[in-house]
């Protein structure tokens, strides 16, 4: 195992996970404060042709950020819990 990753069974994150979290923050900082982004925005930003493979890792990154109070997940403009969100979601800067 490299120094940039930890055992997934222990809830660790790897370099891609950290890059996704940083990308989410960067994307939100480049938009208006009341704007949102889609999970695919983060996946596309670092995934290139293989961005679809990063959709679930991007969602996991967002869930970690929600748990730390760094990111709300919304549906229809309403903040939702990651465990109950079904369907299309958006991320925004905390208010």
What's the structural blueprint in terms of helices and strands?
Layout lengths: L14 H15 L6 E2 L1 H9 L7 H13 L5 E3 L2 E3 L9 E3 L3
Antiparallel strand pairs: 1-4, 2-3, 2-4
Helix pairs in contact: 1-2, 1-3, 2-3
Q: Which percent range fits the helix content?
A: 25-40%
Distance between the termini: 38 Å
* CATH homology superfamily: Winged helix-like DNA-binding domain superfamily/Winged helix DNA-binding domain
Biggest sheet overview: 4 strands, antiparallel
- Total helical segments: 3
SSE string: HEHHEEE
Radius of gyration: 13 Å
Class of secondary structure makeup: alpha+beta
Strand order of the largest sheet: 1-4-2-3
Number of strands: 4
Average of per-residue pLDDT values: 88
Shape: globular
Low-confidence segments: 1-10
CATH class: Mainly Alpha
Q: In a few lines, what is going on in this structure?
A:
With 95 residues, the protein is of the alpha+beta class. It is 39% helix and 12% strand. A hairpin with a 2-residue loop joins β2 and β3.
What report would you give on this structure?
The chain has 95 residues and is of the alpha+beta class. The chain has a single domain, classed as Arc Repressor Mutant, subunit A, CATH 1.10.10.10. The chain contains three helices and four strands; from the N terminus they run αβααβββ. Helix 1 (15-29) crosses helix 3. Mean pLDDT is 88; it is low at 1-10.
């Amino acid at each position: 195992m490299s120094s940039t990753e930890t055992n997934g069974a222990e809830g660790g994150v790897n370099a891609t996970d950290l890059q996704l979290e940083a990308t989410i923050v960067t994307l939100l900082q480049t938009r208006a404060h009341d704007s949102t982004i889609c999970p695919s925005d983060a996946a596309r930003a670092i995934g290139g042709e293989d961005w679809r493979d990063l959709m679930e890792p991007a969602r996991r990154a967002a869930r970690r950020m929600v748990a730390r109070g760094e990111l709300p997940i919304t549906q229809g403009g309403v903040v939702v819990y990651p465990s109950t969100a079904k369907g299309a979601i958006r991320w925004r800067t905390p208010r």
